[in-house]
Amino acid sequence: MQAVHLSGGALTLGLAVSLLCSGCVSMPPASQNVSTSQISVASASLSQVSSLRGALDRLEPDHLILASGGKYYQFSLNGVDVSGLIPGDPVTITYTGVLDPEKGTISTVLLSIVKDTL
Q: Of 56, 60, 95, 105, which is most buried by a Cβ count within 10 Å?
């Protein structure tokens, strides 16, 4: 049997897709009554997964700040393990949602964070 080697980015993306698919919800036929919360869960599960590379700027108990391309982005930790990371570390973040460096609120869901090797 031959071993398969994946780059860190491909592995991260594959894990993120697996996490998203594990929360997929099937939609009932239109004739059935559906609550708004069921629809938003299904919509969130179908969000596009994106990645962003940068430097960890700040690490707080409930969120982190990533510096990338001269801009700063805030991500809620969402239960993602950040142990071993310190400000200044080069990282790749995988997330869903919309990035907006000007907005004060968090509109992304952090899926994973990986320390990059130089």
A: 95
The two beta strands, 49-59 and 108-115, are unpaired
Read off the pLDDT of residues 43-98 as tens digits, 9 standing for 90 and up. Answer: 445 568 999 999 999 999 999 999 999 999 999 898 999 999 999 999 999 998 88
- Distance CA(78)–CA(63), nearest Å, equals 8
Token look-up 């700063």 returns 72
C-beta separation of 82 from 113 below 8 A: yes
Say how far apart CA 88 and CA 100 lie, in whole Å: 21
Q: Would you say 52 and 66 are in contact if contact means Cβ atoms under 8 Å apart?
A: yes
| Contacts of 74 by beta carbon, 8 Å cutoff, 6+ apart | 63, 64, 65, 66, 106
Residue 54: what pLDDT? 96
Asked if residue 3 belongs to a domain, the reply is no
| Domain span including residue 33 | 8-115
Q: What is the CATH number of the domain that holds 56?
A: 2.40.50.140
